[in-house]
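[Automated response] Your request has been received and processed.

Submitted sequence:
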Amino acid sequence: VATNSTLANKAVLAGTINILPGVSVVTNSGTETKILSNSVINIGSGASYTLRGDVTIEDGAKFVVSQNGSLNLDNANCIWGENSCIEVTGGMLSIGNSVLDSFPNIRWKGLDVSNADLVTIDSSTLKNAESHTITNTDLYVLDSSFIIPENSTGLVLENSIPGHITQITNSEHGYGFYGASNKNSEGITIKAMRNRVYTTKVDFCNLKNGILKQGEPSALGSITDCHFTDCTTGISLNYNSATIQECSFISDTATRYGTGIHLKASFPQISDCIFNRLRIGIFTELSVTDEIGEVSTIRESYFYNCLTGMESRNSNHRLEMNYFNLNNSG
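Generated structure:
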């Protein structure tokens, strides 16, 4: 595509399509777009593609956004085939007021972003992908949800290069990460991170791990006012740290299930949290002191009706003004 173009009513895209540098392509609202199997839409440097309306992406088809290119899904209802994906190797990706889902009974590949300028996901729902991986890229997620099938992960985050921003926030509860199975659906996996990850007002439901933070090096980050429901483990920190505040960890199952927070050689600051009807509220092992000799503090938190409120193995923590009620053991 060598000149600015507008697509309307119906559009069928097939084969390899190159949107040349500086060219803008727009698909109008109300348009039905079909992208045939194994097609590749290349969005070159300085080029942009804005996609609206109903979009069918068949098996193996993909968008490729190069350095300084941009892909904007705006009020788009996208159905993705097996192995279809968005690859961003530079430039920007914006998803706003859109739904990205798969054909029935399959998973699409998801977002694969590396060394891009910016990814924004706003007021959107991403369903039934294998995973969405964001590497060395600024990320803003607002008022959006991820519906995660079995053996899949909502977001995989890794910024090994400093200077990036990562924020996953909602203006109210009712958005977040929802798993098909708390045995093998993962919420957010955080690998090596040189910037802080801010997670605020996010719901995590029916997941193996709501948040798994395990990479090194690791910036502190914060998890604030998040709800973890029916997760095998709400937050798992491995050789890591975070500020965890005003979060709730609850089991709504028939039996007391799951662990609220699992710490392995980790030193978070935990405050004003609720642990209710869990197997274990907090399980900690090998968490003695951090690199400057400080121990983590757990304060003003409530442990209700758990089999075990807190279990500590070879760990040091400072407990201040916590409440343990109706647990089988403190």
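Summary generated for your ticket: The first strand starts at residue 5 and ends at 7. The chain has a mean pLDDT of 95.
If you did not submit this request, please reply to this message.
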